[in-house]
Design brief:
The complex is a heterodimer of chains A (191) and B (249). Chain A is α/β, with parallel strands linked by helices. Helix content of chain A is 24%, strand content 34%. Chain A has a nine-stranded mixed β-sheet. Chain A has a two-stranded antiparallel ribbon with strand order 2-3. The longest helix of chain B has 17 residues. In chain B, a hairpin with a 2-residue loop joins strand 9 and strand 10. Classes of the chains: A alpha/beta (191), B alpha/beta (249). Chains A and B meet through helix 4, strand 7, strand 8, strand 9 and strand 12 of A and helix 3, helix 4, strand 7, strand 9 and strand 10 of B.
């Protein structure tokens, strides 16, 4: 049975809208391939995730640590376990993290997908090329399969009344190659 | 400071793509080939850093023979050397691109590797991150501001929540966003000088791809849109249109 892992982005205690969209993609995929799906989330948003996903893995991250794409990538690789499909939103962070994860797994990656379908047991990702002039149906033949989804291309999943227990995953032995801090910028940010 | 710039020759997205009859690939005929704009800005950044700190700039490009014109243009802008990793076609799988680039980059001594954060044709957006992992260097992508003092690099990476400020020691791989600065036009003197420069060619063999394009189709052209006139109830109509046709609200 195929396992799907969603790598979540959060804003404080909330999951971002683009993560909720990726959760819907995971739900749809899991239904199509008769698989299961989980979510990997920063501990501070675990309470939101337990209303969304059937299986939640939470990681305690410091405020600055949560900004490090390198740290996220190393956590994903340690946590992915037997996941066959890893997906994340194609935000600046998502594309950054998944590029690293793909290389750490030595696997191909389909970035900025606008849709996904299952065609006789194969997962086919839809991507826009040449500035949106061409639509490509792309198949990845390696395991794990990695993809990011363009924000606003899928309807976000709705929270359910069912709560699941989150499993905690420790963060350890990561020496960052760069010090990363977040500076606020004026203007609106999409949650 | 010795700087490498990874350059991709891309089809200009202003040109109209034509698909093969089986819709499996794009036909190259009629496409206008340019340097990927993010890479062109990376060359500009490299030139300004070299002029400030000294050293040399080496361009790397993977692809068929046509790629030479992109390297000549980069040399005309002001790069010092160029290496063409020659193969029969451009791979769709960015893992192959990063593997080949890293193999060649390793055999030189660079302080900084620049690349565009993504290519405008394939929108793969992963080569800088992959190079960082392959070379075991820090990597920062989507960079719109860059400062180097002594051996320390500070980079600004805009993300949805604000600006991430990365600080690390060289060597580093940087994925440049074209917004960082406008690239210069090659001067006549630069073009003439570039013609005389030797482009070093390394023939490479592409691994089998694990990312396969099953089919292509042309996007439907956009309709002209709906023009609403200012009248009573127009706000409600706008809201219902946004609900029905977009995912905005």
């Amino acid at each position: 049975m195929s396992k799907i892992l969603v790598i979540a982005e959060s804003s404080g205690p909330h999951l971002t809208t683009s993560t909720l969209e990726v959760c819907q993609a995971a739900f749809n995929l899991a239904t199509s391939i008769k698989g299961s799906w989980s979510i990997l989330v920063d501990e501070c948003a675990a309470n939101a995730a337990v209303r969304i996903a059937p299986d939640v893995i939470s990681c305690p991250m410091g405020e600055d640590e949560a900004q490090s794409p390198g740290l996220w990538a190393s956590i994903v690789v340690k946590t992915a376990g037997s996941a066959d499909i890893l997906i994340m939103a194609a935000t600046s962070t998502g594309k950054d993290v998944m590029g690293r994860v793909a290389q750490l797994f030595n696997a191909p990656l389909a970035q900025d997908c606008t849709g996904v379908q299952v065609d006789s047991d194969s997962v086919i990702f839809r991507r826009e090329l040449y500035g949106g002039k061409v639509i490509a149906k792309t198949k990845l033949t390696a395991k794990p399969t990695l993809a990011t989804f363009r924000p606003r291309s899928i309807t976000p999943i709705s929270p359910s009344n069912t709560l699941v227990e989150a499993t905690s995953c420790p963060v350890h032995n990561f020496i960052p190659k760069a010090k990363v801090t977040l500076q606020a910028r004026f203007g609106s940010a999409r949650m | 400071m010795n700087i490498a710039v990874c350059v991709k020759q891309t089809a200009d997205t202003e040109s109209q793509p034509i698909l093969s009859s089986d819709q499996s690939r794009m036909i190259d005929d009629g496409l206008v080939w340019i340097i990927n704009p993010h890479d062109e800005s990376a060359i500009e950044v490299a030139i300004q850093l070299r002029d400030e700190h000294g050293g040399a700039i080496t361009l790397f490009a993977l692809g068929p023979d046509r790629v030479e014109s992109a390297l000549r243009q980069g040399l005309a802008m002001g790069a010092d050397e160029a290496i063409h990793l020659r193969c029969d076609s451009m791979p769709d799988d960015q893992k192959i691109v990063a593997d080949l680039l890293s193999d060649s980059l390793r055999s030189h001594d660079f302080d900084l590797i620049l690349a565009g954060e993504m290519a405008i044709d394939g929108a793969g957006a992963q080569v800088p991150q992959r190079l960082g992992v392959l070379l075991d260097w820090p990597s920062i992508t989507g960079v719109e501001e860059l400062n180097i003092t002594q051996n320390q690099l500070t980079a600004r990476q805009p993300v949805e929540q604000g600006d991430r400020i990365h600080v690390c020691q060289l060597p580093v791989v940087i994925g440049i966003n074209r917004r960082i600065m406008e690239p210069r036009y090659p001067s006549f003197k630069g073009i003439m000088k570039a013609k005389r420069k030797t482009i070093h060619v390394e023939n490479v063999v592409l691994d089998s791809s694990q990312l396969n394009i099953e089919s292509l189709e042309l996007s439907k052209s956009r309709s002209g849109g709906e023009i609403l006139t200012y009248e009573e109830g127009v706000a409600g109509k706008v809201i219902s249109l946004m609900r029905e046709h977009t995912n905005v609200i």
